[in-house]
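We emphasize that the prediction below concerns an isolated chain of 126 residues; any contacts that depend on oligomerization or on bound cofactors are therefore not represented. The input was used exactly as deposited, without trimming of termini.
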Amino acid sequence: MLHETSGEVIGIVDWEYHGCMPACMSSGYPSWIRPRIVESYRDPKSKIVSFFNEPRAERNRLSDLYEQTVKELDEEYYHCLVQGTRLRDALAWIEDSYSDLAGFAMERWTKDHLFQDVADTDHRCA
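Result of the prediction step, given as a token string:
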């Protein structure tokens, strides 16, 4: 960073591990409400055991409560939360690809959430 009048260097910004993303990527559900997306679409023949903190119905109830509270506190954050869910999920697939090496879970998620009318699906997906 340069001083605006003297031109002297007054600071250095380390941009490593930084990125520029849409605002909707800054919002999200607490991890204890919404588990990793890959967990919900694991290959049914997989022998890997998966654990969730809460049953699906309870997670949906908590998600609804979270959305309602967020909407009351910050309408803009609420819209980012709801509208950015699929984009955040797609990024999660990229980050978690090691747990779905055969691509079965990604194929199921893609069919369920990307190739149908978005209005007909739950934006929380998981």
